[in-house]
Amino acid sequence: MARDQRRDAFGREISYLRIAVTDKCNFRCVYCMPKDGVAPRAHGELLTVEEMAHFVALAAGEGIRRVRLTGGEPLVSNRLLPLMRAIRAIPEIEDISLTTNGALLPKLAPELKKAGLNRVNISLDTLDAAQFVQITRLGRLEQTLRGIDAALTWGFTPVKVNCVVVRRLGQDVFGLARLSVDRPIHLRFIEYMPIGDESARNLHAADAASGEDGGLRPDQWDASDTVPSSELRDRINAAARAASLGELEPLAETDAPSGAGPARYWRFPGAAGTVGFISAMSNHFCSACNRVRLTADGAIRPCLFSDTEYQLRDALRAGDDARVLETYRAAVAHKPEEHEVIEGTARAMSQIGG
Ligand code: SAM
Ligand code: SF4
What we know:
This protein is about 30% helix and about 15% strand. The protein has helices at about 50-60, 80-90, 105-115, 130-135, 140-155, 175, 180, 200-210, 230-240, 315, 320-335, 350; strands at about 15-20, 65-70, 95-100, 120-125, 160-165, 185-190, 250, 265, 275-280, 290-295, 300, 310. The protein binds S-adenosylmethionine and iron/sulfur cluster.
């Protein structure tokens, strides 16, 4: 019997595509990028808007229904809006989402709305202004908070806020979780993962040696820096009890914000939003993984943690749809059943499309 193209070898329906629109960024988060950013790409190395959109149209024929635009920072790319409009015009695509650091959202929200964006995830690791600068190097807390306000004002629903927790940063996780009480914000705590290879880490180490990372040294990824979700929840609940807020209550899957993916959701009693936990390290969710990634330079990565990639750029550029589809199908067919011990990846998160 012919194989269902939409399913991988383990029966998972692959319906979700994440695209790294660019690997450039206006922030330099210490766990993601060296202070001087990533090396600029040679002209022609990156897919054009037309090539990306054409790929999405082909992938829609293979069962892709939802697309997330990420990076790097998608809002710094002048390709984002034309790409979004082109994807919106593909009838099979039901949902377009964006992952952003939020800094440029107040400026771009109206255009994004017009271009057809449905929802946004905004990254925010701390509510402490000084720590925000320490983590992002180039960002200011105010910008990202205004980005969250803009997302709510412009009705990108749901608004999710992603926080990567790193033990040595000692973030105030209860303070962040509390953002979900009064407004429909879905706070998600993400376990810190070893992404990027030794060379990327050496760059970070050079920053640290110059004292320019504030002594955080997150380049030295260490399992002890990953805070398991269960521990985080205990910490948040203890602080919530002390603040008479009541403990987090588990949410039924049907009540989780749309596009819930691998997060498990909870809610403070009577809260407008929710609190989710994404436990990539302590609790693999590979059996439910429905996604593949397209890098800015035209490679399909079937698994975030595996460096096996399927290069599509040449076939796309040659207008060889049959070869594009063949390559895409090979990527889906070889999506690993699960990732095992995660020890880093050849590309940094900003180059994979986190
Ligand atoms: N620039 C956008 C942003 O920050 O939201 C989109 C790209 S960024 C690479 C996507 C997400 O990956 C962010 O939420 C970021 O915090 C997360 N991330 C980066 N490096 C990570 C790591 N080592 N472990 C876990 N999450 C990471
Ligand atoms: Fe930029 Fe996002 Fe990486 Fe921070 S996490 S440096 S905002 S790509």
